Amino acid sequence: MTVATQKRMSLEEYLLYDDGTNTRYELVDGMLAEMGAENPFNVKIAVFLLAYFLQEMDFPYSRLAIGHQIGVSSTKATARQPDLIVHSDQSDAAIVADGKLLRAGSPPSLLVVEVVSNSKEDKRSHDRDYLEKPVEYAEIGILEYWIIDPDLALVKVGNLIDGAYQFQGFTGNNKIASLTFSELSLTAAKVLNAGN
């Protein structure tokens, strides 16, 4: 749902915008687009993955982020807020230097994770994560894009190959394969159950 505002917003205005609620927005063609209520379990999945990268992969905490904005250039959005980002040293330095946003043209992150909200009933949510974001994230060179879909009990891992993501789906006790994180030792079920 697009929120009625007095005027179109610039990217800088969007980054400073606060309506006093916990509503999450993305900037779409200069207009605020409400992202909808996040399923609390989806947040648990993102937090589980953050903890996994910290504990099991011994990843530096400073390179893991929930709530960071990524600048994209498409007809659908100007900025996206993934559920989890695993930064490269360079993308981490770029967002810290900017203070607000990993801008288009900055060094790319290693991984972006999106946990789909209500993919069976919300076509907009499904299309955003399955159709729009893969194109946007590939254009800025993010090496790997995961789509975690609790409704379909599916984890899709997309590896950036020749400018587009090549996806492989994982379900149940299938071990997730990652080109970027070859030492990964996770099953789809473990991710979909937030580690339980």
From TrEMBL:
Xref: CDD domains: DUF820-like
InterPro entries xref list: Nuclease_put_TT1808 (IPR012296), Restrct_endonuc-II-like (IPR011335), Uma2 (IPR008538)
Tree of life domain: Bacteria
Pfam families: Uma2 (PF05685)
Leader sequence segment: none
Domain Putative restriction endonuclease: 11-188
Protein name: Putative restriction endonuclease domain-containing protein
